[in-house]
Protein 1
Amino acid sequence: MKMTKKTYLLLALLVAALLFPILVPNQYYLQILILVFIWTIAVYGLNTITGLTGQLSLAHAGFFAIGAYSLGLLTINAGIPFWAAFVLAIVITTIISFFIGIVALRTKSHFFAIYTMSVGFLIYLIIYKSELTGGVRGLIGIPNPAPIGPLTFESIQSYYYLMLFFLLLTIFFMYRLFHSLLGKTFVAIRNSEELAETLGISVMKNKLLAFVISAGLASLSGALYASYVRFLGPQMADIHVAFEILLYLLVGGIGTLAGPLIGTFIVVVLTQMLQFLEEFRMLVFGPIVVLLILFYPRGIVGGYLMWRAKRAKKQKVADANTTTKGENGNAVNH
């Protein structure tokens, strides 16, 4: 099989990611990348429902929190082994999202966004007020991931590789989804629900499936977050977290495969670089984000794909003109 430039680039990035903890054993940098990996998984979830099917869900932080708290409660209160609780946390969140989606997806456009924002706020209130979740005190003492054979997860390097594994698994899943018939069905619904229905596509069924997949990825991210920080507070379900996830997606490129990873990396790293400004960092960070969205309304990856498509179109026109001139010249000579 012929190796393309894109394949070489992806392999180089994979090797760089695998060697990073060895070449740069700085714990601060590793912590930043771990957070980037965790949040990127959540952004891929939002990209499924918002980027592919065109439904803006603002309940994403709520599903993220359900996944995190489910893992915490199942391991601490119920005493369930870590990996069994990890799987159950995702299952619980997807079941809850299924029933929420049945009602939410009966609304459309901004009504759907408002409804899901209300659901997200309701989840936040339940976590904040409930004694089961620890309320405002939060949940403390979530155990480390249990060893898998000889692999233990106690050092920051082991956490790095664990989060990288789940990120690569998510990217592979999203790649398959983007290039599958199901992914194309989601895009058809995003482009026109009426046209999709005339083609025999069950719009409600597919939107519900996208919603559940989105919530499942959010819960996966939340469970990983809980296992890493080992302390949970109700603020993780707050609406500002949902808007942060949406920001990562908008900066990277909504509806693109690489957008969630690039957007999350840029925003998280930029935020960390401006930490020295303390409360004034938003005065610098805000205008940078505004400029990015103004000049790249489709995100960085979306803008690059548009530029490449225009370039390919111009090249195609130039090649056609060259061929036409050559044929005209041959006709004159004859």
Note: The chain is about 75% helix and 0% strand.
Protein 2
Amino acid sequence: MNLAKKITGLGAIALLSIGLAACGSDEDAGTAGAGSVGESVKYKITGIDPGAGIMEATERAITDYELDKWDLVSGSGAAMTAALKKAYDAEKPIIITGWTPHWKFAKYDLKYLEDPKGSYGGEEEIHTIGRTGLQEDLPEAHQILSNFSWSEEEMGEIMIAIQEGEKPEVAAQNWVDANADKIALWTDGVEKVDGDEIKLAYVAWDSEIASTNVMKIVLEDMGYKVTTVQVEAGPMWTAVADGSADASLAAWLPLTHATYSEKFDGKFEDLGVSMTGVKIGLVVPAYMDITSIEDLQE
């Protein structure tokens, strides 16, 4: 099977929406009256940007589980959550690429499909990575970034605020203002600087929007002039590896970004783990009567 042909573009989202709308309102949400869950969603998995590690893992799952009829729809995180909301509000079936931490698990009753073949790996970690030479050039920032760690609950406060309409920079500032003790742990023993420049690269996942905006404020409070740049996963890793970005708080390891960490081995520094117990996989509303990726074979 040619996996490249299994990923369709943004136009497929419209087809998915039409397919969902075609299901009668009186049909059972678990099967939508179709002969299989695949038929009920037109054999579509709603994904995000094609460069994301979770998309690569989903391609792997399509192969591992021999889901030859299925297509992976590429788009964006925002398009994915919009499709989820539309389906969920109507209690229609939908299958999405999902990850935690993410605000959608607080807003909707969702579940991961079991992955007995391990296509998505086990629990992941979010790492902070820096360019080679960062410690010598920007030692204070290097120390702060190395100290950075927080919990899913702490990150979730910012993600939910943003989802409810707050601007990311405002939500991050409110969190920083309310968590001085936490910030003090990251900056303990670090001297302030005077206008040193630093660039942070990040992907447009809600989790990384939260962490990057928080770190931007923390570094600015320590005297740095901070630039942030939003890119896809591949360009993010490339920027850190070639030095055009100083650091990123958005490296998901060991599986999600394994391709990039292996490709750029020796060209970046792993500054440490900022969050443990994160996860990726296929996600469905809890009202759907399926429990495993194997159920998609039917």
Note: The two ends are 19 Å apart (CA to CA).
